[in-house]
Amino acid sequence: MEQHDNADAARMAALRERYQAEKLKRVRTEGMAQWQELSEELDRDPYVEPGFSREPLEEETTVVIVGGGFAGMLTAINLAKAGITDFRIVEKAGDFGGTWYWNRYPGCMCDVESYVYLPLLEETGFMPTERYSSATEIFAYCQLLGKTFDLYSRALFQTDVTGAEWDADRERWMVTTSRGDRLSSRFFVLAGGILHKAKLPGIPGIETFGGKAFHTSRWDYDYTGGSPSEPMNHLSDKRVAVIGTGATAVQVVPQVARTARELFVFQRTPGAVGVRNQRPTDVAWFQSLPEGWQAERIVNFTEAVTGAQPPVDLVNDGWTAAMWVDTQKAPESEDEAEELERIDFEVMEGIRQRVSDVVRDPETAEKLKPYWSKHCKRICFHDEYLQSFNQENVHLVDTDGRGVDSVTERGLVVDGVEYPVDLIIYASGFEVTTDLHQRLGFDPVGRDGVALSERWAKGAHTLHGVMASQFPNLLLISLVQGGFGTNFAHLITESAQHVAFIVAACQEAGVTTLEPREEAEEEWLNELLRVGIGGARYFMSCTPSFYNSEQQAIDSRAARNLTYTGSLLKYAGHLAAWREAGNFPGVDLKPDPANN
């Protein structure tokens, strides 16, 4: 028994050392500066006809909502349910959908079960065709929500907000747009999306490439041929590079591998890829579900993936199996710390073993194995990605943690070797932890002419991540000091309900402005810090990712720009408790004189 314990301890020590070595390979002094924005050409919307124009709009309304994804749509739907129908939704894209408007790359689908991800299924009567819905189906569902709840008549598409300033005399937000609109609103809701602004790796020479290049969220089917559901027949004579091995690349690679002459997958950090086990929806099962089934299932899933361990696992998929125990929590003893580490190791060992079981070439298989802890990056699930590396036309270019060295006119360079390609596909994801005003594309100006970038220069100041001092009637749906969860749609649903409640409560109480007190914001920050102790310890040992801002050095700003790392259900509980108090705790209010 003692010999077994010694061997187990040695194995864990070796893994701990391997994890640390793999992390250090990838830490870069540039931190978040290693990424860059899309150029104007790469950021062009490929899904709309050029030349769109309309007459500028000038109007007063109760609410202006920035963003037409799930966050903006659910806010609008909840407002309408509360009887508030005079709102405007301003959206950069040509339709509703947010992330699901932009992400139309081949193979794209949600990695969270569609029965818990798609909101309001019982209200719309919609049945997802598969357990994990395709992007095409989710985009169509967003359009269905827009039609069902009459949102199209209140939306301004292909329109960017260019400025927003609080007018203290009128007690309204004055909003301007790229179409010349001048909107005056009592409340201003920033629902720009968690995955909203695409990013590129800052590779030297990236602008010199002479072939075709695009980001996965701006897929060019004119070049590749095919569609999200049809083979890309134009790639049969093309050498293609995919940069990235995260959730997007895992879905793109098998599709490109089917038709490309050659595919080179450039890897900085191996992804963790479990079994997805996709399957069609059982119609009889779906139709037999009782009233209230979706809310119960959503909560059950969130409990399971945050370590609450519900008595019955209703979803029972790769997510709930991997996350059944929350290994990032602060341990109460050395024994618990060792046990949590052991559980984490075992989950990742299972994922690494799957690579060996699937990929035939041992050298390639070893390079595809992730050596990081299970909460460090978002685990992926797919039934074809690893299998793609058994195809003769697919080549893994492992950069040993450095990333691509440079881009030339002909292709990409790694370790002195140039790989000539015709097409570069950037599967590099979205900005998540950059400054909010940067992701929004404009800098709101609040009370006394203070811009958000100035007020938050040393870190965010919010109550629950929803309201911000010096910015009256500004309401946020964001990760900054807000909640976090595997199922983003659950987080967005809770946040949108809360935002709509605040607007409706102010209308009912005759409140013209509300603004959180700074002491309430500091109390919330202390709660974030208290809950985040375990997560901070865990993420410091992680490989760089957007979860830990690429291991960028912690400064005062980063210390304030936290998310609530406890259970999403506990975060929702904080919001519910604030609502149930009934007296706007921690918030200064100004009543409407007309009601006195």
Strand count, sense and closure of the main sheet?
A: 8 strands, mixed
Low-confidence stretches: none
CATH topology of the largest domain, anyone?
Answer: FAD/NAD(P)-binding domain
First-residue to last-residue Cα separation: 79 Å
Helix content: 25-40%
Task: Give the CATH H-level superfamily of the largest domain.
Answer: FAD/NAD(P)-binding domain
The number of strands is: 22
Indicate the proportion of strand residues: 15-25%
Question: CATH top level of the largest domain?
Answer: Alpha Beta
Return the domain count.
2
Bulk shape: globular
Total count of helical runs of at least 4 residues:
21
Structural class: alpha/beta
Per CATH, the architecture of the largest domain is 3-Layer(bba) Sandwich
Oligomer: single chain
Average of the residue pLDDT scores: 92
Radius of gyration: 24 Å
What are the salient characteristics of this protein?
21 helices, single chain, 35% helix, FAD/NAD(P)-binding domain
What does the model show?
This protein is α/β, with parallel strands linked by helices and 596 residues long. It has 2 domains: 302 residues, FAD/NAD(P)-binding domain, CATH 3.50.50.60; 176 residues, 3-Layer(bba) Sandwich (FAD/NAD(P)-binding domain), CATH 3.50.50.60. It is 35% helix and 17% strand. The chain is built from 21 helices and 22 strands. The strands form 6 sheets. Strands 2, 3, 4, 5, 6, 7, 19 and 20 form an 8-stranded mixed β-sheet that branches. The radius of gyration is 24 Å and the shape is globular. The termini are far apart. The relative contact order is 0.14.
